[in-house]
Specification:
327 residues; TIM Barrel; eight-stranded parallel β-barrel; 13 helices; 10 strands; 17% strand; globular; disordered N terminus; binds ligand 9MR
């Protein structure tokens, strides 16, 4: 009986300790990622798609742990203007409502991009592309006027060697399409922050040099541009050592920077050692943003590993987000 009594006392003490778990400890009882980020003056965001809204485990985490939301696909041209002049904002509006219901800010993604672009745009005579682009931007940005924190106005504009991607926009207008897109977006919503967004520009390389030179030239011409988005689709152990210096050279031009699509892909099955390295990669990314004044925040691309684009695009890789399949 004495032994049992001692066990019972131990259990009660343990229960009391759990009840009074200090807020600094990990777990659902601790502070949210969102509040931790906000206390440091940045945001922590995630991306969700329309079908994610049906997953209550996912939405519980998204709505409590994150303060910024990016629609994963629903604001792209193929959804919002599938045929010329015919707009559909219903899928994106659902995600906007979710964000508003959870007092989350929103990043609009994306207005001008070669991918998820309906074929009617790429089939237009080059003389009609400018008007189509401006109408698309004006209509979509006006629809969300006053509701979005930022827009990724142009997405993935450069090739790896730093040359412009020769998409429908570049082919019709040359590099001037970027300034035209930014001016059109600013006219439609003067309060949304306007970003250029790309991948493989996190370190210093030919592609980030091209983005740097473009930003410098746009700022010199007085083109409205508030920030550069670094997608940050990393491979385990490969966060570039020049990441911080690279972000700093952009903020020195007078723009904000943001990490817009963070993930860190791991070869499956993920070992304990790999997940430990991943924790260190995520820490490095977050510390880099915190160390650079002008880094507005960090968005992870997808809520949990099951929602990530990685396994579908890189077979054999996954476990790329901070949450496993059970959130
Ligand atoms: O996560 C998006 C995925 O559901 C789509 O199938 C894919 C199609 O291109 O786009 C994904 O998001 C991309 C983002 O819009 C831009 N940067 C790369 C992202 C991953 O492909």
């Amino acid at each position: 009986r004495r032994a049992l009594g001692a066990a019972a006392v131990t259990a009660v003490v343990a229960l009391a300790a759990a009840t009074f778990l200090p807020t600094g400890q990990a777990g659902a009882a601790g502070p949210s990622l969102r509040s931790l980020a906000e206390a440091k003056g940045i945001y922590f965001g995630t991306a969700i798609t329309q079908s994610d809204l049906n997953n209550s485990s996912l939405t519980a985490v998204a709505g409590s742990q994150f303060g910024m939301l990016t629609p994963g696909n629903e604001m792209k041209w193929d959804t919002t203007e599938p045929s010329r002049g015919s707009f559909n904002f219903t899928p994106a509006d659902r995600i906007v409502s979710f964000a508003q219901d959870h007092a989350m800010k929103l990043r609009g993604h994306t207005l001008v991009w070669h991918n998820q672009l309906p074929s009617w745009v790429s089939s237009l005579p080059t003389t009609q592309v400018k008007a189509a682009m401006e109408n698309h931007i004006t209509t979509e940005v006006s629809h969300y006027k006053g509701k979005l924190y930022a827009w990724d106005v142009v997405n993935e504009l450069f090739n790896e060697d730093g040359s412009y991607r020769s998409d429908a926009f570049f082919n019709a207008m040359g590099s001037g399409y970027v300034a035209d897109a930014l001016r059109t977006a600013r006219a439609a919503d003067p309060d949304a922050k306007l970003y250029l967004n790309d991948y493989n520009i996190e370190g210093q390389n030919a592609k980030s040099d091209a983005m740097y030179n473009l930003v410098k030239s746009l700022k010199a011409q007085g083109v409205p541009l508030d920030g550069v988005g670094f997608q940050a689709h990393f491979i385990l152990g490969q966060v570039p050592s020049s990441f911080k210096a690279n972000l700093q050279r952009f903020t020195a031009l007078g723009v904000n920077v943001a990490i817009t699509e963070l993930d860190d892909r791991v070869q499956l099955p993920a070992t304990g050692a790999a997940l430990a390295q991943q924790a260190s990669d995520y820490t490095a990314v977050i510390n880099t943003c915190l160390a650079v004044p002008g880094c507005a925040g960090i968005t992870q691309w997808g809520v949990g590993d099951a929602d990530s684009w990685i396994p579908g695009t890189f077979p054999g890789y996954g476990a790329a987000t901070m949450y496993d399949a059970n959130y």
